[in-house]
From TrEMBL:
Native organism taxonomy: Bacteria, Pseudomonadati, Bacteroidota, Flavobacteriia, Flavobacteriales
Highest taxon of source: Bacteria
Protein name: L-ascorbate metabolism protein UlaG, beta-lactamase superfamily
A Pfam family reported for this protein in Swiss-Prot or TrEMBL: Lactamase_B_2
Domain Metallo-beta-lactamase residue range list: 119-312
Gene3D superfamilies listed in its UniProt record: Ribonuclease Z/Hydroxyacylglutathione hydrolase-like
Species annotation: Chryseobacterium soldanellicola
InterPro entries: Metallo-B-lactamas, NAPE-PLD, RibonucZ/Hydroxyglut_hydro
A GO CC annotation given for this chain: cytoplasm
A GO term, aspect molecular function: zinc ion binding
Length: 367
């Protein structure tokens, strides 16, 4: 009997090693990169820390409850859309270089041009926002953009290393079109494993900044979240960004629960012409790491944004709310607060130089 138990244990260990050694899982930081991490004031007990105490689950919730809800509780009938998600397949390669534009690619992926420079943020352009091709499949229609649709890129920006933000197939496929990668401390280890060169990578922690081409500056600012591609959490940093160009200021929020850092960022770097903030895949149980819609509104007020573009919805079902609830709630709450909430369809260009924007409620007739 004991030999059978040992044999099963060995098989489980071997299976784990075989799976987790696949390239999709990336690499652990080592050498000089790890030394930099260990010197960071935000790195303690072998992991990065949020500015505020951030439990995985909010008070009154347990992991067993969360797992039960996910696997056994009756799902909302509109967890996923019943029709194809409407989208516009804009030809990104033919957008004039002097046009300042934002194009949402679904979930938290977006393409931007401003001041003659191109940016691609958190691109997940494969069919699955996970390491396995049987989980977290993109909604039909929301998958309209593919890696081959991407133009040559001045900058690839990554906010953290979760699979729905750092997509191995996409990152590999666009490698030869990327000039420079901007990412938080520790995440560079993944990209170097996937073939990117050290000289291509800008890798900083909160408070760090870099001067880019055309007098553009990017600043690493806090977020309230976590990281990890295997079982170890918080081995790399997560971040938001402030993008300052000669003509505009933008806040790129990444994934974050609500906290005082939004007010701090607004006071130090605001006001912002645009704030791109996550709004979706939330739940009361994990509100500290994914903001609820009412928190997104307060965060937008805190950073002092003239225009808010909500992302992190409409492509994957990573929470239990109806697929279009985030957009319904944020637009309703935004009207109550007289905020400019911009809700383009996937692929619908947003002219960043316009002062007035008008988008339809495209999600309403697409349950």
């Amino acid at each position: 009997m004991i030999y059978t138990i040992i044999a099963i244990a060995v098989l489980i260990i071997l299976l784990y090693l075989i799976i987790t050694n696949q390239e999709v899982f990336g690499a652990e930081p080592t050498g000089k990169r790890l030394e930099r991490m260990q010197k960071s004031q935000h790195y303690k007990n072998n992991q990065f820390q949020n500015l505020s105490y951030t439990p995985s689950l909010a008070e009154g919730h347990t992991m067993s409850e969360v797992l039960y809800d996910f696997f056994f509780k009756k799902k909302d009938p509109y967890l996923k859309p019943h029709k194809i998600v409407p989208a516009i397949h804009t030809d990104l390669k033919n957008i004039p270089k002097d046009q300042d534009v934002f194009v949402w690619l679904g979930h938290s992926s977006y393409y931007m041009q401003t001041d003659g420079i191109s940016f691609l943020v958190d691109p997940v352009l494969s069919l699955y926002g996970s390491p396995f091709k049987f989980f977290n499949k993109a909604f039909a229609g929301a998958d309209i953009f593919k890696p081959e649709d991407m133009p040559d890129l001045d900058y690839l920006i990554i906010t953290h290393d979760h699979y729905d933000h750092l997509d191995y197939p996409t990152i590999k496929a666009i490698k030869n079109r990327v000039e420079t990668v901007i990412l938080p401390l520790g995440v560079g280890a993944h990209l170097e494993k996937w073939g990117y060169e050290e000289h291509q990578i800008i890798e900083e922690e909160w408070g760090g900044e870099a001067v880019l081409k055309n007098n553009i500056k990017i600043i690493y600012t806090p977020a309230r979240h976590f990281s990890g591609r295997k079982f170890k959490r918080n081995g790399t940093l997560w971040t938001s960004y402030v993008l300052e160009t000669p003509t505009k200021k933008m806040f790129l929020g990444g994934d974050s629960g609500y906290d005082t850092h939004f007010k701090m960022i607004g006071e130090k770097y605001g006001p912002f012409d645009y704030a791109i903030i996550e709004n979706g895949q939330y739940n009361q149980a994990w509100k500290y790491i994914h903001a609820l819609p009412e928190d997104v509104i307060q965060a937008s007020i805190d950073v002092n944004a003239k225009n808010i573009i909500p992302v992190h919805s409409s492509k994957f079902a990573l929470a239990l709310h109806p697929w279009n609830e985030p957009l319904k709630k944020i637009t309703s709450l935004g009207k109550d607060k007289n905020l400019n909430i911009l809700t383009p369809m996937i692929g619908e260009p947003v002219d960043l130089n316009k002062t007035d924007h008008l988008f339809g409620d495209w999600w309403e007739d697409n349950n």
